[in-house]
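Extended Data, panel c. Modelled sequence:
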Amino acid sequence: MKQLLILSGKGGTGKTTIASAFIKLAEARAYADCDVDAPNLHLISGWNSEPASSDFYGLPIAELSTDLCIQCDSCRQHCRFDAISFDEEYKVNTYACEGCGVCEYVCPVGAIKMVPAVSGELMLYSGADEAFSTAQLRMGSGTSGLLVTEVKNRMKSAAPDAKFAIIDGSPGIGCPVIASISGVDMVLVVAEPSISGISDMERIIDTAAKFGTKTAVCVNKFDTNLENTKKIEDFCAKHDLPFVGTIPFDSDAVKAINDGLTIVDMDCASGRAVRKIYSAVMELLFEGGEPEISAVGGDEQKGGCMPCAEGTEGGCTSCATITEGACTPCVGITDVQNCGYNPLKELLNKTEEQKNDENSCCK
């Protein structure tokens, strides 16, 4: 199973928006939301059924028996996390307890035991050949890396025949991100053209590099700061990182998300840009081979509707003039009527001669 992980370095860059669009374009049969602190991919995934839920047990926490306690104060003195307090009797603060077990070890009468504690909730949506795995960490709980690993394992177990999986990661470079990167084939970094966005992008790229993971970069809302967008492109060029495209700021994207849709469910500027980025990412992920996945509206070749990419070294970008910015991969080569790109509908009434005479790279 090929695994594509979408990360951002910082929150609010549009990572989940792009992940949901990729899932729709790929008609993905296996996908996961590994942002266990604040998962929200399920809000626009279109599942009507309830998930199969189960408790996740992380590190154990201390449980103190006041009946056995002789109030020697040894446990409180040895707790480096100040999780044990005394007010007439000894109590354990479950939010402060790190599960180290020192208190259990030093207690002379065995009044303290380390007991399993629920740290989060695992959720698995499944139906037919499709599986969506996610989870939510409980407030104040640690072991988020273990929870992320379990989310990925459940996704793979629920869709063993899937050839391709898309994973929506979490912001930052902490434990959830480390666990998310482990074992994936490629990372797509969604950058933001701001000072903090560039700094966080560099950190997540450096983190992925330590795993030796193939990494590509795109910029969301690039037109909010063209100067910083150019800096990101220059950074990628300097470090030989594939720069797969830009996405404009688009108010229609906000409307789509608020309606519970992905940005490729409607004809909008951001959706058209994401389609191009998706095709470029698929090319990188499968390294020019035939991806065994389907893409919305196209032949199962070169990551989607890109049959003429061979002749143009980068796709049908020259066709944009006749499709309002979208790629016209099927013109003159495949059946246009089977293409899912909305801008191509205007071409259906044109003759083959007209199609070949247009500014199409496919003629």
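The chain has twelve helices and 13 strands. This feature is highlighted in the accompanying rendering.
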